[in-house]
Specification:
By secondary structure, this protein is of the alpha+beta class. The protein has 8 helices and 4 strands. The chain has a single domain, classed as Glutaredoxin, CATH 3.40.30. 49% of the residues lie in helices and 12% in strands. It has a 4-stranded mixed β-sheet. The longest helix is centred in the N-terminal third of the chain and has 18 residues. The mean pLDDT is 93. This is DsbA family protein.
């Protein structure tokens, strides 16, 4: 079964859902072998204004909910990336970085997405910055110069926009979302975080379904 994961590296519930999805990919249970394609949804691309303190407080509250629900680590308080002076919550660069790795080293795409998320949420690193994104790529064994060159290129910018457009055409407005290809149809498996048992049950239902969900 082919799965399509629509996510954003700077979406906290996507970070939380990674626990579930990682468990599924590691031990799919009774499901057929799974192939995962990762598509960038575009949570807040091309944001220009710095995050104001009230909005940062609101987002930090969402992060605490994710931490409680999933056990994922978050840097909190003054250490949070949200509190960095002048921080702009633009998710396009991190999304483009994932698309770049998908182009350069497809088998590392999932690991890179998770590494960017961990750097942002747990490590309080500003993953809107090209050098930080290159650090993460280099830590996974990619050549820094190759990554930086591709990341800055127009083809990667265009490919990222195509991801955002495809997500919009699928009618997906929030993340995470997981789709499954079965019998030449796309099935929406989940729109939002669900536990692993629920996810496996839904995939089993897709495997026995006929026609679009």
């Amino acid at each position: 079964m082919n799965l399509i994961y629509v996510a954003d590296p700077m979406c906290s519930w996507c970070y939380g859902f990674g626990v579930t999805l990682d468990a599924l990919l590691t031990a799919p249970g009774d499901a057929a072998p799974l192939q995962l394609a990762i598509v960038m949804g575009g949570l807040r691309p091309f944001t220009k204004e710095p995050l104001d303190p009230a909005r940062a407080d609101e987002i930090a509250g969402h992060w605490r909910h994710v931490a409680e629900a999933t056990g994922r680590p978050f840097a909190d308080g003054p250490q949070s990336a949200l509190r960095a002076p002048g921080f702009v919550y633009d998710t396009e660069p991190a999304s483009r970085a994932v698309v770049t790795v998908r182009h350069l080293a497809p088998r590392l795409t999932w690991r890179y997405l998770e590494a960017v998320q961990h750097a942002f949420y747990a490590g309080a690193r500003d993953v809107t910055q090209a050098d930080v994104l290159a650090d993460v790529a280099e830590n996974l064994g990619l050549q820094r110069a190759d990554f930086a060159r591709a990341f800055a290129s127009e083809p990667m910018r265009a490919a990222t926009l195509r991801d955002f457009t495809q997500t919009h055409e699928w009618g997906i407005r929030g993340f995470p979302a997981l789709l499954a290809e079965h019998d030449d149809h796309l099935h929406l498996v989940t729109h939002g975080h669900v536990p692993i048992d629920t996810l496996r049950e839904r995939l089993a239902g897709v495997a026995t379904a006929h026609g679009p969900a």
